[in-house]
C-alpha cells in the first residue's frame, strides 16, 4: 500500500507519509500539531453496566470520542 504525502491544512507543507500511516485522518503536520496542542479533543466516558439503584459494582468499559479542533491557516489568529 502506497501512502502519498498530502499538504498540511494549516501551513501548506507536505505531511510525511509516516505520519499519515500512523494517524490516517490527520490534516496537519507534526510541527503545526505541536503548535496548536494536538489536532483532536478526545472525550472518554465510563460505561456503566449495573442496574440503576444497585449497590453491586459491575465494571464496564470506556467509550471514546474524537472531535477535530477547528483549524485556521497559520497566518490567522
Automatic annotation (TrEMBL):
Gene3D superfamilies: DksA, coiled-coil domain (1.20.120.910). Keywords: Metal-binding, Zinc, Zinc-finger. The keyword Membrane does not apply. Residues 48-77 are annotated as: Disordered. Residues 8-33 form the Zinc finger DksA/TraR C4-type domain. A zinc finger (dksA C4-type) spans 8-32. This is Zinc finger DksA/TraR C4-type domain-containing protein.
Amino acid at each position: 500500500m502506497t501512502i502519498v504525502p498530502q499538504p498540511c491544512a494549516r501551513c501548506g507543507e507536505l505531511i510525511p507519509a509516516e505520519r499519515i500511516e500512523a494517524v490516517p485522518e490527520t490534516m496537519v503536520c507534526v510541527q503545526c500539531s505541536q503548535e496548536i496542542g494536538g489536532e483532536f479533543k478526545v472525550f472518554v466516558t465510563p460505561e456503566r453496566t449495573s442496574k440503576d439503584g444497585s449497590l453491586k459494582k459491575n465494571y464496564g468499559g470506556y467509550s471514546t470520542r474524537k472531535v477535530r479542533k477547528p483549524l485556521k491557516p497559520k497566518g490567522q489568529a
